[in-house]
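ok here's the first one, seq then struct tokens
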Amino acid sequence: MRVLLSTFGSRGDVEPLLALTMQLRSQGADVRVCAPPDFAELLAGAGVTLVPVGPSARELMKQAPTPSSLPERAAEVIAAQFEAITPAAEDCDVLVATGMLPAAAGALSVAEKVGIPSVYASFQKLVLPSPHHAPMAYPGRPFPPGVTDNRVLWEWDAASVEVLFGEALNTNRARNGLPPVDHVRDYVIGEHPWLAADPVLDPWLGSDLGSGLGASGAGLVSRPVATDLDVVQTGAWYLPDDRPLPADLEAFLEAGEPPVYVGFGSMPMHGSEDLARVVVEAVRAQGRRAVVSRGWADLSLIDDADDCFALGEANHQALFARVAAVVHHGGAGTTSTATRSGTPQVVVPQLADQPYWAARVADLGIGVAHDGPSPTFESLSAALRTALTPEIHTRAAEVAATTRTDGATVAAKLLLEMVSREGTPVPAWIARGLVGREGARVPGRTGRAGQSVSRMHAPEPGGGGRPGSRLHSSGSDGQGRR
């Protein structure tokens, strides 16, 4: 079986696909990964050839998105999905779409165009409508003042997605001979998405996975109250990293007490003046040494003192377990890695889902959510003082023991079962879709020769499938309506 994995985003969007790739390969599948060109070296290091998609993610991140620029960016990203993914998907049996919503919309449209099944997976629940949590607000589309009803906010979210991305998607679909989609968000999510997030960090209410710190189930089907979504929470797609730390970093770590790690990943940190000086002096004020990761913010050391180490690429899994605290931007991947390490965190969120992860870290008692995206010496010092207390250190270790590392294994098993549970791989032209209930209709998905096709059903983990778990085709009104 040949699987195509697609994303557009930062490293935190790409590494989970690499984890899933390794698990699928171990089961005999051939895997292609479509992602921004920035990550060719990362994938090559694991023996995976990248199918480059779109512009450089780093170049896009250099300019903060604005309400006026978002539709233009979306159109560029979606057009790139059609251009790069279409030839890559032609002989594939299934496509997994993740990452930015417009990019996922483009990838799913390609699957529709070539007539293959597809799965949408989110790395956090904030794009999955539920009365139990609010969505993210988009630039230029703040929530209506005074509105606290999550159902109303999700209606606002759907309208925002339509305003920002609807024209971009449908223009590109028309160019590729596809009918328009009336509701972009619902088209992407479908009724049965996957949630590839740790159930302790990001529980989907109604799932046994997130019922407590001792949860240990795998791939259970969750049914939240008062929502049409039927979410399968696989757990985070974790990629074990056994690379040794650089020798000079090892020497630095061994030369004194555990330092504080500071790094902001793919965030350019435009709003923070003299950021390197702020973070180094705040760490020193706690009597600690610092490991300063350059990242896309290009952080550098402020002097030649031997209490600081400038870091490029390194194994975060190995490093985070050996530091006193992790100061970071709150990306899903970094938050998960820091949580698994059992190390206290200070999260300085910048955008998108990062404030949510900061809040989760604070709610779990495993770190501090910095107030706002621009740290000062005073604010970061205060956050570090709290994070470095024995209470948070103990709590971080307790929570780390409850996190799971089998999400990619669960997802690979489910994906292979969905496509192959009839005994042989289903030809790409037969079916198209996600996981769900008998007869679920996702109009606007048309297979080869005009055949209307629907989304797939996921078998119950550990069993032979629930009623309606077979692949089947169903009707469509041809207009992408839901």
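and now the second one, same deal
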Amino acid sequence: MCRWLRREALIRLVEGCIWLLFTGYVRGGEQSNFLKLLMR
């Protein structure tokens, strides 16, 4: 049970990070800068 809860929390954390990155990317609209960060 403890392990499952920890995994669930980790998944939520990762989803939150991805959502923040995605919304920031859409709001900023700086495609070239985003791609530069990905390629680095």
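notes on #2: Residues 1-39 form one domain. The mean pLDDT is 80.
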